[in-house]
Specification:
The chain is mainly α. Helices cover 62% and strands 8% of the residues. A two-stranded antiparallel sheet has the order 1-2. Helix 3 (64-75) packs antiparallel against helix 4 (82-97). It is elongated and about 70 Å long.
Length: 143
């Protein structure tokens, strides 16, 4: 059942996020037609980005196990965009260690956060990750 929900969520996000379009218009003339500053742009959203969006949606719904499963699928990809990989590692660390996650696992959370620091030593999240590692270590001691 859980796998069905995850697959459904991934398909919905992939279908909805497969491409994004935006239209911008400047002034309109007196007939209501767009003036000279009319433009349309479209970009293709990668399957990986759609999967990340699905994981975020599952997290918002409180399905931490589903979100983690989706993120671990991304984590296992060897050709993942480095910026997305950094985000995946951070999110896995957050989700595994979240107090809202009934199945929280401080050891796994710390593993992903240490890996983030190892792979991305100049990460903009260094201070935050270091704080989380300290909090997780303290919480694990109390167990």
């Amino acid at each position: 059942m859980k796998r069905h929900v995850i697959c459904s969520a991934l398909l919905l996000v992939a279908a909805a996020c497969g491409s994004r379009s935006s239209t911008s218009m400047g002034e309109f003339d007196e007939t209501g037609r767009p003036g000279g500053t009319y433009s349309v742009s479209t970009s293709i959203v990668s399957q990986e980005t759609a999967q990340m969006d699905a994981a975020r949606a599952l997290e918002r719904q409180g399905d931490y196990d589903g979100a983690i499963e989706a993120l671990e699928g991304l984590y296992s990809k060897s050709d993942l965009d480095p910026q997305l990989r950094e985000e995946v590692l951070l999110k896995l660390g957050e989700l595994y260690g979240s107090w809202m996650n009934a199945n929280r696992d401080y050891e796994k959370a710390s593993h992903y956060l240490r890996q983030l620091l190892s792979e991305f030593p100049d990460t903009q999240h260094r201070e935050r990750v270091t704080e989380m590692l300290t909090q997780y270590a303290k919480a694990a001691e109390k167990k």
